[in-house]
Amino acid sequence: MAKLEFEPIVDTTRRAEIVARLRRAILTGQLEPGQKVNELRISEQMGVSRAPLREAIRELVQEGLLTNIPYAGAYVINVTAKDIADAYGLHHALEDFAIERVWPLRNETFAVELNRRHAQVKQATLALDTTRQIETALSLHSLIYEWADNALLLDTWQRLARRLQMYFALHQQARNEPVPAVDMHEDYVRLLKGADMAAAKRHAREHIDWDFEELLSYAHSLETNRK
Predict the structure, then answer these.
(1) Which of 18, 79, 155, 194 could form a disulfide linkage to 56, CB 3.0–4.6 angstroms apart?
(2) What are the beta bridge partners of residue 214?
(3) Which residues of 196-227 are buried (b: 16+ CB within 10 A; e: fewer)?
(4) Domains of the chain listed by start with CATH number
(5) How far apart are CA 41 and CA 22, in angstroms?
(6) What was the pLDDT predicted at 227?
(7) Is residue 46 a contact partner of residue 8, using CB atoms and an 8 Å limit?
(8) What is the CB neighbour count within 10 angstroms for residue 143?
(9) Beta bridge partners of 69
């Protein structure tokens, strides 16, 4: 198990900073699937009281990265192969529908924002910043949901994206690399700005399935190790 250490936080009112540090610890594997969140140790290391730490934990429970077990405390969620298969299957369906919805609504502003978010992904990738790369990649994918003018679709995507954060991080651990290739989203972005919706949908499905079997195999190995 990786050694877990947190630097003190000067401003004890910065709940967002506590959330960000805990999220990063989860996504980088410092806090591993199934591991209990030691409130006392973390609050001492960060130099914060238990109250804002517990608020941050509750926020991460809502995001789906932590689970709260009554009378036992908060734990990083365990990840199973079925969880991943379910999430990726839903991602297929949502992405397909979102592309259909967004297609007639695209304009120059959409293209500019797509390019901006793509640039952020590439910057994080070149910096080998795993957590930031995952966040910016999800933000890039989020654009078609934000633009599709369907509140229920966007809400469903946002709930799914919270789980995908962890699955993407596990994917990088399975590959033993901090980030994927810098050109990972080039075709995705190009096709979303193009004229062939069928091609964009087809590529989106292929993009989602990138090394899916490798991730699934890694999840199976984690389940075996927990037995």
Answers:
(1) 18
(2) none
(3) eeeebbebbeeebeeeeeebbebbeebeeeee
(4) 15-76 (1.10.10.10), 81-226 (1.20.120.530)
(5) 13
(6) 67
(7) yes
(8) 19
(9) 73
The tens digit of pLDDT for each residue in 62-115 reads 888 899 999 899 999 888 899 999 999 999 999 999 999 999 999 999 999 999
Tokens of 187: 């075709």
Stated length of the chain: 227
Contact 49, 12 (CB under 8 A): yes
